[in-house]
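Posting this for the archive.
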Amino acid sequence: MTSDSVRLAGAEPDLNHRDPEYLGLIHETKARLLSVYDGTAAGWHPYLLGGSGTLAVEAMIASVINSGPVLIIENGYYSSRIREIFTIHKISFRALTHDWLDGWDFDAIERELDNGYEAVIGVQNETTTGRLNDIARLAAMARGYGAKCLIDAMSSFGADEIDFTNLDAVCASGNKCLHSVPGVAFVLVKDNLAREMKKFPRRSYYMSLPMYAGDSPPLTPPVPALLALRQALREYPAAGVLGRRRDYEGKAKFLREQLASRGFTSPVPFKALSCTLTTFSLPVGFNYERWFELNCEKGFVIYGCKGHLRDGYFQVSNMGELTLEQLSAWVDAVDEILASAPL
């Protein structure tokens, strides 16, 4: 859900990544990324990568960890994926596993941190359910135990609150709350860690963050997607992240109130959710495939849940260039589907 001007930016005439004009593109994009949170990430180093958000997660893990061990806070599909990445790279870790519908158990986290860890890692908006995990509390706790704090902020960066004070690395992508197109992901690394990680073991060629430290890329970058990201950042609200969050919160509130009044429920309390998306129960008598098909016939695309949650729930996002009129049209479509469905 991007604007026409963002799409058109990606269709500009070809720009060679060795052209001086490309340097202007990179300088501006990096500066605007660091300014999203009102300059609180000043002094951090942005690394732009050509690929999906998962590439940024894996590049962060492969680059900013020396030897481990690392504590993984797991409460959903995407934090489980982080555990898989650690396993593949053979980095020492322990996963503190929660039920997918539960928030973080900070008493258990603190007991575990007392065993000594190089770092702790978690997902801010665990989009398996949309639960917004308390990364500020996690980061402060990690700092107290001398551990770095790494955060996957894939579908929260640019909308949900992020306090960078005690964080060490944050990764995200341009095609979520920043409203760009897929193709560019990024990792923000605190200045001292950016210096230290140059001495850490190199676990990958393509995903080694120090290789992307300069402005002249060692590998061919996705220039059209970078042009689109720059335009999306130029269109970012003048009120900053607070402006985008207020916009999202208003749309999320509308969706949640409308569906709750129709008997839909959420497995996570609304107050515990990110402002970006909501998980709702499937209507009685529908499986996900049929519910998706009927919504699609009305011109709307909903999202399926992961794992065992797919049998009982679906998801709706209010990220992107959506209007209340469009959201209201979807609610009307829901009414039409329910009215015509056999009981």
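The mean pLDDT is 95. The chain is about 40% helix and 15% strand.
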